[in-house]
Amino acid sequence: MQFCPQGQAGSPYRLKSAVGLAAMFGPAILKVIRDWRLLSELMVATVLLSGCAVGPDYRAPIVNVPARWSSDQTRQAPGPAHPSHWWSRLNDPRLDALIEEATASNLDVATSKAKIREARYSLQQTTTGLFPSITGSGSATRNKSSTSSVGNDSVGISGDPYNQFQAGFDSSWELDLFGGTRRGVEAATRNLEASEDDLQTTLLTLVGDVAAYYLDARGYQARIALARRTAASQRETAALTRTKFEAGSASAVDVAKAVAQASSTEANIPSYEAAYSADLHRLGILLGREPLALAQALARTAPIPTPRMPLPKGIPADILLTRPDVRAAERRLAQATAKIGQAESALYPSVSLTGSVSTSPLKISDLAKYSSVSWSFGPSVTVPIFDAGKLRAAVGVSQAQRDQYHAAFHAAVLTALEDVENAIVSLNSERTKVRRLMDAATNYREATRLSRSLYQNGSSSFLDVLDSERSLYSSEDSLLQSRVAVAKDYVALAKALGGGWDGAIDSTKPEVVDADTGPHVPPSL
């Protein structure tokens, strides 16, 4: 049975009894403390009170989400979402290797791992408040007295110098009667959990960025190759037109237009190469390396990866578990709720148990034997009486911060739903666009072949050739861009569903290992 003046009783924290605490101070003191029935009764009362905790107990908020995504029109129940390792559906071993390297060496990931270690040590610091603290002290002094009195006169007498040694222990224990420290531990625990989810958010963003920049780079490689092939074909058309001009069957205007079209196509190549270089440099940075680190590895042109469809999307409620940013927002709401109780505990009295033992012999060998021993033990109570509303204001601040995190959590859920819906619409629309562009490119390719053949035989005008070549290049270039867009929309959908790296990530190892951290003379001195 526990007595709790306010708030719900939580898990009781086992306090040490007066007998157990006194045992630290030696057998001589133990006998004295056992006789103090009043202190024993006080300790029993503190144990009963230790199960109390003020402030609101956290309950996960209820979130209303749609039953289905907008694209799910069938009555059949959707399968579970499988967003992990979604990049393997792009069927590109080079991309798989880049993602694996990025997760191991990216600097943002290193920062997130350091934040986890910081949160873990912060939790350890907060937890120590539940336990007593003990400190030891010691001193050694050389003393001499030289003055005494005889009658009404002071006569200087030189005494023999002597040594005096002192050793002792001091202990203190603030009893967590109203759960303020335990609320602090709860808040620190939630912060650690949020930091771990932040790492997963960083990995999700990283994997998506590596895939997106890789797709862009492959797209620009394909567009550069297309521009070069098209320009070469247009140069052949210009040469044919010049031959016909020399034969008198074409005009100088036709020759100038043919050369101009080839030059116009070639003019696109430098801008594509610049964009490719920018993507290449960014990939190097994402891998934690220098910008040109991947220049040789990606120099060879490769096809634009085509994702394997469909990507299982599950139901909207799945994002509450699969999206790490949503999980982190919920954990921070729990942390803010615990901090309210931490602030409210300051409104109540605080009780501390303090004790000390010291001994002062004249010889160091007489410590705790033939020496004077002094000790003290007892509780101290601090009661807030008047602070002009400062502590109440601190509670109000905590409550307002909790409301902010409550709104931030719901905003994170809505943003996640929006991301998925937008990605679904974009992916479906872009796939339709690809099919139309493929038909257009096929027909323009046939039209170009026929117009060039007819022009070579003199059955068609040069304008037909010029127009068909221009249209063919435009449609093929648009098709390449659309294929990249489909793959990037697939990446966006996977990220929106919470797909990221689910492999092992070791956050315990520090990035910087210090040496010579013990007492030493710094080199600068």
Can you describe this structure in just a few lines?
The chain contains 11 helices and 6 strands.
What does this structure look like?
The chain is built from eleven helices and six strands. The chain is α+β, with helices and mostly antiparallel strands. Strand 2 and strand 3 form a beta hairpin. The longest helix is centred in the middle third of the chain and has 67 residues. The chain starts with 17 loop residues before the first helix and ends in a 29-residue tail after the last helix. The N terminus is likely disordered.
In spatial order, strands of the major sheet run: 1-4-5-6
- How many independent structural domains? 1
- What is the number of beta strands? 6
CATH architecture annotation name? Up-down Bundle
Could you name the CATH class?
A: Mainly Alpha
Q: What name does CATH use for the topology?
A: Outer membrane efflux proteins (OEP)
Round the Cα radius of gyration to an integer and report it. Answer: 39 Å
Mean pLDDT across every amino acid position: 86
List keywords for this structure.
single chain, four-stranded antiparallel β-sheet, 525 residues, alpha+beta, Outer membrane efflux proteins (OEP)
Summarize the topology:
Layout: H1 18-22, H2 27-34, H3 37-49, H4 93-105, H5 107-127, E1 133-143, E2 147-150, E3 153-156, E4 162-175, H6 180-246, H7 252-286, H8 319-322, H9 324-344, E5 350-360, E6 372-382, H10 390-456, H11 462-496
Antiparallel strand pairs: 1-4, 2-3, 4-5, 5-6
Helix pairs in contact: 4-6, 5-6, 6-7, 6-9, 6-11, 7-11, 9-10, 10-11
